[in-house]
Amino acid sequence: xxRFSRAVILSTTSYSFRVTGPRAYHHGxxxxxxxxxAVTALDEVGPAxxxxxxxxxxAGVSHAAPAHxxxxxxxxxxxxxxxxxxxxxxxxxxxxxxxxxAGVAYVRFAVDHRAHFEVMFRPELYRPxxxxxxxxxxxxxxxxxxxxxxxxxxxAEEREADVLAAWSIVHGFATLWLxxxxxxxxxxxxxxxxxxxxxxxxxxxxESADS
Length: 211
Fold this sequence. Notes:
With 211 residues, this protein is mainly alpha-helical. The protein has helices at residues 27-49, 52-59, 64-70, 73-94, 99-112, 114-120, 131-149, 156-179, 190-202.
């Protein structure tokens, strides 16, 4: 399976089907079908080999259909990034403002929505300044800040540094997990492993007597 990743941060079923044969879709339905087909293609071949022509074949539509909806490959991946940031925002919101749960939710999102995750953080693949991307990324960033907020009470600059630290840790963990870089002793459950790591890093520890 192709692997890819990384960049800037700051919807909920795993898509894994392929639609074949000529079909007639409602305009909105076809867009969703094309996005789901893109997720499947990305999981199989990665972004470099993805093409609108192959996407049309997978969806069982005319070769012109993907271009009609997305314009070009960058437009398709821009739409996928928007969907991904919105899914991430939903996942973080569901954590209820708890930093540990938000960190685990971030890792779960990366594992469950790998194609989205690895496109979202490679802005060279899409149009990161697109208004919809900017808005969706801001929503995800706001949810991450909400999770850190309960543990960060210093000045604004320190709170922002805490957000960056939290994001770096959970994003780094997710990226290492997806790349298969962890040793076997870490186990096969990404959420359980992430919970151990995040708890160690973010649980308050008493200061030493010498401090």
